[in-house]
Amino acid sequence: MSSTNATFWRGFIFLGFSSFGELQLLLFALFFSLYLITLSSNIFIIIVIRLNSNLHTPMYLFLSFLSFSETCYTLGIIPRMLSGLVMGDQAISFVGCAAQMFFSASWACTNCFLLSVMGFDRYVAICTPLHYANLMHPTLCAQLVGISFLSGYLFGLGMTLVIFHLPFCSSHEIQHFFCDTPPMLNLACDDTGLSELGIFILSLLVLLVSFSLITLSYAYILAAILSIPSAEGRKKAFSTCASHLIVVLIHYGCASFMYLRPKASYSLDRDQLIAVTYTVVTPLLNPIVYSLRNRAVQMALRNAFQGRFLGKG
């Protein structure tokens, strides 16, 4: 049996946070607490938006799908990471590793496209408010969500194929807590130049296309806000975008640092810290930011905690 085939059958072992020694239990408690808050917050946001008719608008529809996408993204990574912190080294099959990379990359790309769609929604709401209802009709909203999910899966498949055509014969120990592209490139025993270029191009396409659309939307939004004569009107218009902007900056900042770098700049400890931020902290920010800064969501959450939903359209 060749070394490549041996790797296929043997699979891989996550080393993750094995170098942290006694701190692993403390990290488990911290990450487990954050994950419970993340999971429950995103699910609660989805339920509140679904049950409260006041939130049946495109903006909140997209927010609920973003929460759903974030939840799916974390489900494929964090539970296994938490068990690794308790049990130490953790094995994963070759196929399981490829599946984890496919789904994590797909949902991450989907998040980028959904954030672009949310930026477009804010552009229509602020720049053409009189035509908002006609332009952002349910059919278009469904199409935008569908395109975001389909595009995410296609890019996720492309990234997975680029990585898993490589021969993994030098080692089966992954210096990370999930099957991400940087640590997998480090395991390859063949020249990874073309694969690195392929990952860079795919990542650049996702981030550049989605972020360019967001930037274009906000360029028009900024021009429209500056044309509002009253300071109160400008403040009110900008407040509808603030939550989205905060999530965008954090999301794209972490993603760009992780995937738009040459292999030589990878660092185990630093990359794991950024990955934890991207997989644990960022999904938590979505419900927190929107809940703290959005009055309609605050009202819906207050009604939910009181055990009643206002069914007024």
What's the helix and strand layout?
Elements: H1 3-10, E1 12-14, H2 23-51, H3 58-75, H4 78-87, E2 90-92, H5 94-127, H6 132-135, H7 138-164, E3 173-174, H8 181-187, H9 193-226, H10 231-259, H11 268-293, H12 295-305
Parallel strand pairs: 1-3
Antiparallel strand pairs: 1-2
Helix pairs in contact: 2-3, 2-4, 2-11, 3-5, 3-11, 5-7, 5-9, 5-10, 7-9, 9-10, 10-11, 11-12
Brief sketch in words of this structure:
With 313 residues, this protein is mainly α.
CATH architecture: Up-down Bundle
| DSSP summary, beta strand count | 3
**What portion of the residues fall into strands of 2 or more residues?**
under 5%
What shape does the CA trace take? Answer: globular
Helix content: over 70%
CATH class: Mainly Alpha
- CATH superfamily, please? Rhodopsin 7-helix transmembrane proteins
CATH topology: Rhopdopsin 7-helix transmembrane proteins
Topology pattern, helix = H, strand = E: HEHHHEHHHEHHHHH
Low-confidence stretches: 1-9, 309-313
Structural class: mainly alpha
Characteristic key phrases:
single chain; 3-stranded mixed β-sheet; 313 residues; 3 strands; mainly alpha; 76% helix; Rhopdopsin 7-helix transmembrane proteins
Descriptive overview:
It contains 12 helices and 3 strands, in the order H-E-H-H-H-E-H-H-H-E-H-H-H-H-H. Helix 2 (23-51) runs antiparallel to helix 4 (78-87), helix 5 runs antiparallel to helix 10 and helix 9 (193-226) runs antiparallel to helix 10. The protein has helices at residues 3-10, 23-51, 58-75, 78-87, 94-127, 132-135, 138-164, 181-187, 193-226, 231-259, 268-293, 295-305; strands spanning 12-14, 90-92, 173-174. It starts with a helix and ends in an 8-residue tail after the last helix. It has one domain (3-305): Up-down Bundle (Rhopdopsin 7-helix transmembrane proteins). 76% of the residues lie in helices and 3% in strands. With 313 residues, the chain is an all-alpha fold. The chain has a 3-stranded mixed β-sheet with strand order 2-1-3. The protein is globular.
